[in-house]
Amino acid sequence: MQIYKVGGAVRDRLLGRAVSDIDWLVVGATVEEMQAKGFRPVGADFPVFLHPQTGEEYALARTERKSGRGYGGFTFHASPEVTLEEDLIRRDLTINAMAEDDQGNVLDPYHGQEDLEHRLLRHVSPAFAEDPLRVLRVARFAARYAPLGFQVADDTLELMRQIAASGELQALTAERSWKEIERALMEEQPQVFIQVLNDCSALQELMPELHCDADSLAALVQAAKHRQPLHVRWACLLDRVQPAAIKALNQRFKAPRECQELAVLTGEFSGRADAGMALEPSGLLEMLQKFDVYRRPQRFEDFIVTCEMRALGRGEQTYPQAEYLRGAAATARAVNVKPLVDAGLAGQALGEALKNERLKAIEAYQRR
Ligand code: ATP
Ligand code: MG
């Protein structure tokens, strides 16, 4: 049997980038041989194993054929006769379809090195169209390698356009799509992900609620520039989307709770945050209550940062509202409930009294 390094590890080494995880390909071996060497099978019907010591993934060379709609609709064929070239041709991009042997020789039947040099994301074969997820993957790689000057090859973009037009993107599961969206958002230029999806008309299939102009993407650009976490980036992406559409996007991709909440709250309250010092104390307190700044202080902080990214995206140099809102939250939190309890208040009356004390504190804070 021969063992090769494949995929991202080869690509990123040639690009001089840090290699995160290594995928291995095994040619000329049977499942039984792998098990005899102590490799542990990963899934029942998938010819992938974990190395007994390193835990890295080793896949048997395989061919794939599409047999139906969606991701379930694939048949795999793994056997010792499947060659390296046959395995590599089923991969998405030429720069992902290179292998490296144990001497460090690069095996590159589909000219991935040439495309690396020309900074091109190019599909390996027409079989690319068999898995619609590849549209999102290419857009994600475009976002990741945009700082290096990579672009999607014209004929690949055309193929992506055909996939989008076929309606097949609708067959993707929320989980598979979200995984790509999440990784794309965490790249250095996540806006490129949206732009590439828009260029091939996949955006209107996947996220028709979004617009792809510079203004709509500006908050996300700032969030990436300031290395904000995923939920802030998601909320920034949905910056100019209507509340109902925010909910629809959250649900379509089953976004994590933290992302969903921040996007919805930002949609509802960013206008009040922007009003800052001009906001009525009662409106300010209502917002703080809605955020539950008493038990969820971090969530309000994430919201402030999101609003700040939006403001920078609009071309504002600073966002003085941020400090003002932080101070207001601290003021409301500092109101002590004990004197009210000691005065014999309980239940609804206590709640009302506490709210009243907080309102007075915020009024004083605003006048200060
Ligand atoms: P990353 O740095 O994002 O992990 P990667 O290239 O290693 O990039 P993986 O998702 O880890 O990406 O997949 C490993 C390899 O498997 C890819 O390089 C590619 O050759 C192949 N591959 C993965 N998913 C697909 C797919 N949906 N269609 C075709 N080939 C794929
Ligand atoms: Mg990988």
From TrEMBL:
Residues reported to bind ATP: 8, 11, 91, 137, 140
Record's keyword annotation contains S-adenosyl-L-methionine: no
E.C. numbers: 2.7.7.72
Enzyme class, first EC level, given as a word: transferase
Membrane-spanning residues: none
Cofactor list: Mg(2+)
Protein role: Catalyzes the addition and repair of the essential 3'-terminal CCA sequence in tRNAs without using a nucleic acid template. Adds these three nucleotides in the order of C, C, and A to the tRNA nucleotide-73, using CTP and ATP as substrates and producing inorganic pyrophosphate. tRNA 3'-terminal CCA addition is required both for tRNA processing and repair. Also involved in tRNA surveillance by mediating tandem CCA addition to generate a CCACCA at the 3' terminus of unstable tRNAs. While stable tRNAs receive only 3'-terminal CCA, unstable tRNAs are marked with CCACCA and rapidly degraded.
Other comments on record: A single active site specifically recognizes both ATP and CTP and is responsible for their addition.
Protein name listed in UniProt: CCA-adding enzyme
Organism: Pseudomonas taiwanensis
